[in-house]
Amino acid sequence: MQVTLRCQGCEESTQNALAATVGIMKSLIGHFDLDPNRVFDIVLECFELQPDNCVFLDLIPIFPKSHASQILGFKFQYYQRMEVNHHVSLGLYQLTALLVKEDFIDLDSIYPHLLPKDDEAFELYNSFSSKRLDEFFCDMAYRLIKFGKINLAATGKDLMENEKQGDVTIDLFTAIDLESEAVTVRASELENNQTFGLLTGFLSVNDWYHAHILFDRLSPLNPAEHIQICNKLFRYISIRIIS
Question: Which residue range or ranges hold the THO complex subunit 2 N-terminal domain (predicted)?
Fold first, then answer.
């Protein structure tokens, strides 16, 4: 059955071919007493490997809608195990996003299966931002002490007369370096944050409606700070401009 599904190309997806494929699948399930959920799992795996094969969009509705969220949820939960050392593939994010876009599943039905939870992610990001801000001000204070001498007894006029160009400076390049370092540190966050991954999935399948929902929901995390998300966003904007 899996070979049949993977060999069934979109160009062969006539109405008769689709009806025949659905009939064969139902016959296999009934004849061999197969677990429908396991069959559905195989269908989703094949769809993940062949996202452009439109035959799957006609196969999925023969299974209960509620089962899709559970099966996908189990897939995401698998990657949350401590012993699993690899991350969720972009294909799974795109598959999930496409099923949401096509209204096979609801966003709110799959979202609870993703990690980290919003409150935990917000708290972690706030701690990260506070630490980054502290490092910036510490660096600026060091440079003020190193390059400038401040006389607390001096008047404003004295400071203007005695100040030499370059005595007290705000190093723009240092600020840029700190920001670049922060982006690098957050790169690993994108790999581990499944909600960000789903956001990239929505942008990949050109679903701005649900992408916008996640942008609003995740706005405290500043998702656009990630280069990968920015690239997907620019790609979507380019497509919209051309179309």
Answer: 11-48, 66-134
Tell me what percent of the residues of the chain surpass a pLDDT of 70.
68
At 159, the pLDDT band (50, 70, 90 cuts) reads very low
Return the SS3 of 85: coil
Prior bond of 116 cis (ω within 30°): yes
Q: Decide: 201 and 105 in contact? Cβ < 8 Å.
A: no
Mean pLDDT of 35-55: 86
Neighbours of 128 (CB within 10 A): 15
Question: At a CB cut-off of 8 Å and minimum separation 6, what does 119 contact?
Answer: none
Task: Tally the C-alpha atoms within 13 A of residue 73's C-alpha that lie toward its C-beta.
Answer: 14
* Number of Cβ atoms within 10 Å of the Cβ of 138: 10
pLDDT digits (tens, 9 = 90+) for 52-104: 887 788 888 888 888 899 999 999 999 998 888 888 999 999 999 999 999 99
Determine the Cα–Cα distance for residues 191 and 86; give it in Å rounded to an integer: 9
Give just the sign of the alpha carbon dihedral 28, 29, 30, 31.
positive
